[in-house]
């Protein structure tokens, strides 16, 4: 036994056998002989398959109910009612003027005039799900346009930037998938189409015609997966095949059940001389059909028999198969199962909470790393610059030190928990213990603490002026007294 133990220890310690076990995925064994993926960069894959992938993704989100529901759930959780700024300017009066001007400008932000700034954020989130990317063009406006701040935003779909436009411009400059780079890889410009290639209602210049837009006027919002990636990939891409085939399977099953239900029974006749009650005209092949109506009694002639149709059922495995397939779809989309399907039959408080905690970690990563960094921060900087130059804001020394005035914190939308009472009580206890500040607790709800404090002070002052009395005073709606640890006394004082 001692010799065998020593042999086992030698084998388990390392050496060629251990390395070979770790590299099993690189071996050309019988099972893996057909697995020969191309060693291509992600940009090459996107350039070759991007247009078809994009077209299929858009068609799937429009026609497939699960994909459409997943798209809306993704946008609702990513941006909700908007990722909003909270200025960090030290001067309270200036900070209040900046916030008020920003709030008023959000209604004028859309160049198409269809929604406000936070509606544009939702559109960007949907485009990230469907196309993997979205382009936002910063549109400076003239003073005579009558805007509070001479700046608007225009959303451009991924199709507006041609995947196939790749060429060498000389001097180290080159165009890759419609994006112009300099010799050291910095983005110089975007070569957009003047017309959408799939819009047959827009008759104008030829589709291949492009216009060069400087990179300083374009925001390219996408989630970078690999290093060096220049174009985005649809969020729905990993689940596209399963969703498409599952949709076809469900349609085929529905048609089978419909066809089977249309035949109620079959009448066997020996040699009928007269048509049966309800029987239609005889077809060319000699067959005839008889209709059935509620309350009908049919008398058969001698020698005739009726056999009712008993179509085979789908079986007990259909629902289980669909459930497992949709679980794989949900995992591919990075969304919880109940958000994709709307099915919460097998869920409880613990499972929903555990699932949502992990999902919200992923969403927060996108909120801060993509939406806030690539979209919100550049818009805030350009908006403040346009407001100062247009005379809407008076910020002394802005030209020499713009970072002082641009300091801002972006507040994502609040999370609605499964049991809000337990979460609020936990936050109150954390605040009382000094483990959490009121600012962080309020920001977690998606609101600005200064706005909340002003509203609470105004409510308290108004209640005092009117002589109103509450069991809990408006000024005490925060902190430990917001959630009493015992039931209130029902006796009126």
Q: What would you note in describing this structure?
A:
The chain is an alpha+beta fold and 493 residues long. Among the domains are: 38-158 and 219-263 and 316-418, no CATH class; 419-488, no CATH class. 43% of the residues lie in helices and 12% in strands. The protein contains 14 helices and twelve strands. The protein has helices at residues 2-13, 16-22, 42-63, 65-78, 92-105, 117-130, 240-262, 317-333, 337-341, 349-389, 402-406, 420-432, 438-443, 449-466, and strands at residues 84-87, 133-140, 151-156, 167-170, 173-176, 179-181, 187-193, 210-214, 218-222, 265-268, 305-308, 408-411. A five-stranded antiparallel sheet has the order 4-5-6-7-8, with no helix packed on it. It has a three-stranded antiparallel sheet with strand order 3-2-9, covered by helices on one side. A hairpin with a 2-residue loop joins strand 5 and strand 6 (179-181). Helix 4 (65-78) crosses helix 6. The longest helix has 41 residues, at 349-389. The N and C termini lie far apart (85 Å). The model is unreliable at 477-484 (pLDDT under 50).
Please tally the helical runs, counting DSSP H or I stretches of 4 or more residues: 14
The SS-based structural class is: alpha+beta
Mean pLDDT: 82
Residue runs with pLDDT of under 50 for 5 or more positions: 477-484
Distance between termini?
Answer: 85 Å
Task: Give the overall shape.
Answer: globular
Number of strands: 12
Query: Order of SSEs, N→C?
Result: HHHHEHHEEEEEEEEHEEHHHHEHHH
Rg from alpha-carbon coordinates: 33 Å
Task: Please indicate the percent range of residues in DSSP E strands (runs of 2 or more).
Answer: 5-15%
Main sheet, how many strands, which sense, barrel?
5 strands, antiparallel
Identify the strand order in the major beta sheet. 4-5-6-7-8
Helix content: 40-55%
């Amino acid at each position: 036994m001692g010799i065998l133990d020593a042999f086992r220890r030698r084998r388990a310690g390392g050496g060629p056998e251990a390395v070979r076990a770790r590299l099993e995925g690189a071996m050309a064994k019988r099972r893996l002989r057909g697995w020969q993926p191309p060693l291509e960069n992600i940009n090459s894959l996107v350039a070759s398959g991007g247009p078809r992938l994009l077209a299929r993704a858009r068609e799937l989100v429009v026609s497939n109910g699960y994909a459409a529901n997943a798209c809306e759930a993704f946008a609702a959780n990513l941006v909700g009612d908007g990722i909003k700024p909270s200025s960090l300017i030290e001067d309270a009066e200036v900070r209040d003027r900046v916030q008020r001007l920003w709030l008023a400008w959000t209604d004028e932000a859309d160049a198409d005039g269809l929604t406000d700034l936070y509606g544009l954020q939702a559109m960007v989130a949907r485009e990230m799900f469907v196309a993997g990317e979205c382009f936002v063009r910063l549109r400076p406006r003239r003073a005579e346009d009558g805007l509070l701040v001479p700046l608007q935003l225009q959303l451009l779909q991924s199709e507006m930037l041609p995947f196939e436009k790749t060429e060498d411009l000389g001097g180290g400059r080159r165009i890759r998938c419609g994006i112009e780079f300099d010799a050291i890889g910095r983005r110089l410009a975007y070569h957009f189409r003047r017309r959408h290639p799939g819009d047959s209602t827009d008759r104008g210049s030829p589709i291949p015609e492009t216009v060069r837009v400087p990179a300083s006027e374009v925001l390219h919002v996408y989630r970078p997966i690999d290093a060096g990636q220049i174009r985005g990939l649809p969020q729905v891409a990993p689940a596209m095949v399963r969703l498409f085939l599952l949709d076809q399977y469900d349609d085929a099953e529905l048609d089978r059940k419909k066809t089977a239900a249309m035949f109620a029974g079959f009448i066997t006749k020996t040699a009928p001389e007269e048509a049966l009650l309800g029987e239609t005209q005889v077809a060319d092949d000699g067959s005839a059909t008889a209709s059935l109506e509620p309350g009908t009694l049919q008398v058969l002639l001698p020698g005739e028999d009726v056999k009712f149709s008993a179509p085979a059922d789908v079986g007990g495995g259909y629902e289980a198969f669909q459930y497992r397939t949709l679980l794989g779809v949900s995992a591919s989309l990075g969304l919880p199962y109940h958000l994709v399907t709307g099915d919460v039959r097998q869920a409880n408080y613990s499972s929903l909470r555990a699932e949502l905690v992990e999902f919200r970690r992923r969403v927060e990563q996108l909120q801060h790393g993509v939406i806030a960094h690539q979209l919100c921060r550049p818009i805030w900087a350009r908006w403040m610059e346009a407001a100062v130059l247009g005379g809407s804001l008076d910020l002394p020394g802005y030209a020499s030190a713009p970072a002082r005035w641009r300091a801002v914190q972006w507040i994502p939308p609040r999370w609605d928990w499964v049991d809000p009472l337990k979460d609020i009580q936990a936050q109150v206890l954390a605040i009382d213990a000094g483990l959490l500040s009121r600012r962080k607790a309020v920001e977690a709800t998606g609101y600005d603490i200064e706005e909340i404090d002003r509203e609470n002070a105004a409510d308290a002052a108004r209640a005092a002026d009117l002589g109103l009395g509450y069991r809990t005073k408006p000024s005490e709606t925060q902190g430990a007294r917001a959630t009493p640890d015992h039931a209130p006394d029902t006796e009126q004082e």
